[in-house]
Amino acid sequence: MTFTYLTAGESHGPQLTGIIEGIPAGLTLDVDQINAALADRQRGYGRGNRQKIEHDQVEILGGVRHGVTLGSPITLVIHNRDHAHWSAIMDPTAPATPENTTRKVTRPRPGHADLVGGLKYRHNDMRNVLERSSARETAMRVAIGNVCEQLLAALDIQIVGYVRQIGPVPAEQPLKSVAEIKAVTAANDLRITDPDKVDTIHQLIDDTRGAGDTLGGLIKVIAENVPVGLGSYVSWDTKLDAKIAGAVMGINAMKGVAIGDGFEAATRPGSQVMDPIAFDQKTGYHRLSDHLGGFEGGMTNGMPLVVNAAMKPIPTLYKALQTVDVQTKEVMKANVERSDTTAIVPAALVVENVVAIELAKAILEAFEGDNLARLQDQVKAWRMEMNQ
Ligand SMILES: Cc1cc2nc3c(=O)[nH]c(=O)nc-3n(C[C@H](O)[C@H](O)[C@H](O)COP(=O)(O)O)c2cc1C
Ligand SMILES: C=C(O[C@@H]1CC(C(=O)O)=C[C@@H](OP(=O)(O)O)[C@H]1O)C(=O)O
């Protein structure tokens, strides 16, 4: 069974819906863990007031019985509490009237999907674009990603995402293990590994908000104990690093993805970039460093996967930039919707979850995945073979 997933739903519509196909039967799903991830996505300094309205909770409506997956498609729902304030404007079936189209958007925000989305789909009200282009949808990707993280955990694979830099301020301490990073980043509201930078960054975010401006930043995801040999070198579209890069770029506001030392590796000689190979009777092959972020030839090499992402600043500016009104073609200030000053903190979790989805997918492509116990046996046997 091929692993696939789909999400649907508008930001201020009634709900987000997700369907996942291909999760093995026999996985005990911890709903509290999904909800904890959803709560985690809502936290973070610099977010707007929408997060005070939402208390994201997942409802599982298919594919799971008595807490255990059935092997059939899994249906997930997250209700938008804010819909209560938008029920007429976002009514899926009531015909449009002057009363329920009052929040029409005609002044596209530079950097958001408004203008091109409106032109492409012939929407003269760009609310029809922003409702779906909104990163509200990433709540469902986190729910789906958490199901995948629970599958990965059943295969002893751990993953974490954190913030390396916010705007111009780096905030990274070199911590090695996923467990260590989780402990340090959970203890601050910026998901950073250098807690000494918290006050400086809070100030930066406050000042930026005060100036009507926004911030982006850098994110890193690390996955540990990933089996050797996921993905393949044989064709361009079988390379797992490429699939991960594509999935990360598919997250709202991402402008760059790099594996391991990434762009920086291009500046050093090969001797400082390639990871020397060693062998140990007990644990098999390993590398003496991890500059290449766990990938060679598009395949995992058993070292921790390291995926970096660059997020642009939030496009909606309270001090709005110039735009053109699509009705009058007059130069105006762009539309201002309620907005985050920075969303780098939730975005780190979104990137983590999207990488988890791609890893789960790669495993389910490599092994027969109808049943979890059988999958676990195959992965165990595979790991032994790769270590010989
Ligand atoms: C978690 C998260 C929250 C976001 N919040 C906002 C926001 O409040 N306002 C905004 O204009 N953009 C926000 N964005 C970014 C936009 O969704 C994104 O820039 C837009 O969809 C255009 O897509 P692109 O930046 O990938 O080109 C957010 C992105 C993420 C990942
Ligand atoms: C709703 C979420 O993020 C939203 C993403 C977003 C955008 O344009 O991407 C714009 C804002 O929407 P609103 O105007 O409703 O506040 C954010 O709050 C969320 O992350 O749950």
From TrEMBL:
Annotated cofactor note: Reduced FMN (FMNH(2)).
Domain of life assignment: Bacteria
Positions with a binding annotation for NADP(+): R41, R47
Required cofactor names: FMNH2
Coiled coil: none
Enzyme class: lyase
Catalytic function, reaction form: 5-O-(1-carboxyvinyl)-3-phosphoshikimate = chorismate + phosphate
UniProt pathway annotation: Metabolic intermediate biosynthesis; chorismate biosynthesis; chorismate from D-erythrose 4-phosphate and phosphoenolpyruvate: step 7/7
Keyword Disulfide bond assigned: no
Keywords for this protein: Amino-acid biosynthesis, Aromatic amino acid biosynthesis, FAD, Flavoprotein, FMN, Lyase, NADP
PROSITE patterns referenced in this protein's UniProt entry, alphabetically: CHORISMATE_SYNTHASE_1
One Pfam family cited in the UniProt record for this chain: Chorismate_synt
Region ranges (Disordered): 91-111
Record carries keyword Membrane: no
Residues reported to bind FMN: R132, S133, S134, N252, A253, G297, K312, P313, I314, P315, T316, R338
GO MF annotation terms: chorismate synthase activity
Subunit structure: Homotetramer.
Annotated family: Belongs to the chorismate synthase family.
Protein name, as recorded: Chorismate synthase
Originating organism: Limosilactobacillus alvi
Protein encoded by which gene: aroC
